[in-house]
Write a structure and sequence with these properties.
Layout lengths: L32 H4 L13 H11 L19 E3 L17 H15 L9 H16 L15 H4 L16 H10 L15 H8 L7 H5 L5 E8 L3 H9 L4 E7 L4 E11 L4 E5 L7 E5 L6 E14 L12 E7 L2 E7 L18 E8 L4 E9 L4 E6 L2 E7 L6 E8 L2 E8 L17 E7 L2 E7 L4 E4 L4 E7 L7 E6 L8 E7 L6 E8 L2 E9 L3 E4 L5 E5 L11 E7 L7 E6 L2 E5 L5 E6 L9 E8 L7 E4 L4 E5 L5 E6 L9 E8 L7 E4 L4 E5 L5 E6 L9 E8 L5 E6 L4 E6 L6 E6 L9 E8 L8 E4 L1
Antiparallel strand pairs: 1-4, 2-7, 3-4, 3-7, 4-5, 5-6, 8-9, 8-15, 9-10, 10-11, 11-12, 12-13, 13-14, 14-15, 16-17, 16-23, 17-18, 18-19, 19-20, 20-21, 21-22, 22-23, 24-25, 24-43, 25-26, 27-28, 28-29, 29-30, 31-32, 32-33, 33-34, 35-36, 36-37, 37-38, 39-40, 40-41, 41-42
Helix pairs in contact: 3-4, 4-7
Length: 768
Amino acid sequence: METTSLAGILVDLQVPLPVSSDVSPEAPQHFSLLDSVSDSLEPQTLVEPLDTFLPRLERITKLSGPRVTLKSSLAALSRQVSHRQWQTTLNVSQASRGTCWAFAGIAALEAAYARIGVHVDLSEHYLFHLSKAHENHVGGPGIHSLVGFQGSADIVHHLAYWAVPLSAHVPYSDQGPLQNLANSIPNTGMALSGSGGGTREQADWFEFDLRNIPLMGRWFAQYRVKTFGKKDNFTNDDIRQTLSDGYDVVVNVYDKINAGGHVLLIHGYDDDTKTFAIKNSQSLPGFSTMLYVNDPQFTIQYGSMYFITAVQPVQTQWAAMWVGRWETDHDGWRGRLIIRRFINIRGNGQLPNPGSRISLGTWYAEDGRVLDVVGHFVDDGRGLHCDIGGQPFELYLHTRDPYRAGGRTWWNKLPFGVVLSRGTAVGAGSGFDRSESIGIWDTVHDGWRGQLRIGVDPSYVQAADAVTRRTWIDPGTTAHRIDTHVDFGGDNRNQYFQLLLHTREDGLMGGVTSWGGKDWPVEGRLSQNLYTITPEGTLNWYRNTGRARLAREWEGPKAVGSGWGGFKTVFGGGDGVLYAIAPDGKLMWYFHDGRNQGQFQWQGGKEVGTGWASFARVFAGDGGVIYAVATDGRLLWYRHLGRRDGSARWQGPFQVGTGWNGFIALVAGPDGCLYGTQPDGSLLWYRHYGYDQGYPIWHGPVRVGSGWQGYDKIWAVGNGYIYGRTAANGGDLWLWRHHGFLTGEASWTNGVKVGNGWGGGMREVIAT
């Protein structure tokens, strides 16, 4: 690992880049649902009813707050003070949502940053969401972002705990589109509304949907209050003095016109007109004045006022990246982890530590168990140490790819591997013995990718530079534990990896590596192999041992099956799974148990579906996801929940796109990445962020290459490696590495020819 500080890691963070503007108009386009749904609901009132607003104001006066000595004396105050120059433009109002306190807090934070030369437009939507998710955990059910109000001027206090992202990362949405989104999510049961309702779990499905809060918001929540002031039982003179000292003031008011509670920002005053200058989120442009007394609309509630005195440097809040929904797999035990909060906003403002652990969320096991998650954070939030149902877990974000996390857990005093993904759990098959560790593994440790060979002559090839590193493995007595060391050169000649193979499934490992005195996550999957079907129906196995070095080095062919010539099509499902569509439309599942060495060992075939012969094209993504292109170009999503054992359990179909029938070749890789070649030779990249549930959440298309019209098939086999077969010359096989496979950046290692004869004499070529 390179010696990069946590503060600097965001430079290399593998997150999407802006969409290319030079993509053919014939390419399928995708947009957020929130951009397209109509606001068909009745508007709500803009204020909170007094029966809930006034008791909240009484409670916040009891909150502790820093005592700040104001610098001026009333006798020296200017007759006019204006902070208008620090105020950002209000591009959107709160509309029909009760989000005034989020707008007021964000307005104060934006102005505080502007004073130090940092001009930003921050996300009210994210701040409102974070508060609702926190309260859904401690006080739910019935608390979610469809429910307005439930906040006040003390949001300034909360902003010292919660960092927020730019509004470009999490745009504001009005009540109608949000309600439509909630209703469109199957697991909400249409039970959520502006008046509450629904279970905690139904709220989770809506709250953590990526169309509500994109992952970019969690990854780039970087703006936060450092210090603030609070004054109770204040007067107008206190407001004037605070403004004169250079601080904007957030206050609670009674809105006489709308008959309810409201929160707004005061950013100036004028003694000649006896008015305060205010920023009010109820309507645009939002800037107006309010009389000191007897204002026709607002009456200040003089319980508590808040003001920001300093802001934090712009920096990532790592712990916030844990919030949301994860698919988890610890040693083959799968479930869904929901983290609703990372800090107690009623606490001391510090992340929970070993002596102050808190309940953070819930784990929902695939077998039906529901367990509390209690824990604390290490390394500024990068690591999460928690107990799930009393079982200890040490989990760490991949800081260069926070879409993923990993680590280890203990059971009967033995460590076992854990992998987490914002997408799908992977791995297939069942049963384990030590020999199944022998082979070539695609690995990632804290976002650094490579290929590890386990066996008599171990080696590690770093994907970024294709350099082979000296590697050695310690002898051990625990069958599933592989203690590995890699010499990365320089001052890192012996980096230790504790690799923990999953014992309840094949070809997957978790674990940790040690570097800089800290633990970092590791995960690995057996590398994909290539298979061919001959005209006689023989299934042959090949392993490109030189893949990580882009070299023409192979093992095979080895015959691993027969009778495969009778299928309409065969395609790889990842992790050794093959799917075959029979002429009558039956979908068959097979798992190659002998894939690590090319042995004749199989599970299946098992019939897992019918009616698959009518599609124009069928191909598989990751974790059981299968895409089918209909003859009219619609892209349909299925998820084979029984991919691991061949059971006929499914989710879908859901339509996730249109216009997908114009590609020459089309393939899906890990983590929702898709590639398609067009007749003009363009190679288009997409990332389907909704691939875990079949939601139409996309990034792309982005043109990442040209000159691909000569290739009739492509395969994306993980870690950015892509094979392409020429239509001419008997089928030359080429290999590239796409360094931007997670982001859509057009950064490549030049392709090399790694084989020939992969065309005319073969019925099918499959990667899995």
